[in-house]
Design brief:
The chain has 3 domains: 169 residues, Sandwich (Jelly Rolls); 55 residues, Arc Repressor Mutant, subunit A (Orthogonal Bundle); 51 residues, Arc Repressor Mutant, subunit A. It has 12 helices and 10 strands. The protein starts with a helix and ends with a helix. It is α+β, with helices and mostly antiparallel strands. Helix 7 crosses helix 8. The strands form 2 sheets. A 6-stranded antiparallel sheet has the order 1-2-9-4-7-10, with helices on one face. It has a 4-stranded antiparallel sheet with strand order 3-8-5-6. This is AraC family transcriptional regulator. It comes from Mesorhizobium loti R88b. One of its GO terms (molecular function) is DNA-binding transcription factor activity. Keywords: DNA-binding, Transcription, Transcription regulation.
Amino acid sequence: MASIITRFTGEDEECATAIDTLFFSRRSSTGKSVYTAQWPCLALVVQGAKSLAIGEELHTYGVGDYLVVSLDLPVVSRVTEASSEAPNLGLGLRIEPERLKDLFGRINMAPAPHDMRAVAVNKAHPDLLDAVVRLLRLLDRPRDIPAMAPLIEQEILYRVATGPFGPALLQIAMLETPTNRVAQAVAWLRRNFTRPLRIEELAQHVGMSPSSLHHHFKAVTAMTPMQYQKQLRLHEARRLMLSDRLDVGSAGYSVGYQSPSQFSREYSRLYGRPPLRDVTASR
């Protein structure tokens, strides 16, 4: 896998591949934290090591591990082991919800008896690694990708679904489970994160009581709905300042902050520096 990723990546980049759900990354140094909204995916490090934080929880993974993110989550990722001689090499495979639902419609599995975190790290079974290798090898046979990639991706999903994290994925895919309703709440927050958050309105939208929503949401995401919305807002504001070069006031207002001082205070708490200092240092 390392040789394939090396051939298809340049120096220090994250890139798409000819398989539309497959992405590669290569980093030759450690240190800088990346704040992003992570979509559901399977991630593998084939050389080096990485960490991913949700809320106050830190997950570390390296060669031989796989990480699964089952919901859209604001996260902080960081390369923890890399060098110019042995760069960090990794891959991400986007999990398509419809494919997941189709798969669970054809296998017999009981959901987890309790809420499970939307992020987990486990040891990769040889059968899972074998399927991933075969998917990567398709990049050298582009004519085979349209026919073969969906079949191998389904096999990869099956290996993940029948592993330790499978019951958590099933909870999300099944209607009328608390975790599925948390997934609905996450989707609503992502669409409406610039709006003022009223827990009663969100709870009613997903068919839960406010206290039940708060409990299950935190059990799955390691954050309260308010903390989740705040991180979405701040990640987007930072992106607007770095990529679109919006000024501090405009970025804060664009993501829903009415008070510049509140925006600066909450930004500093998350990123460790006031907005202008952070953006200047990051450019």
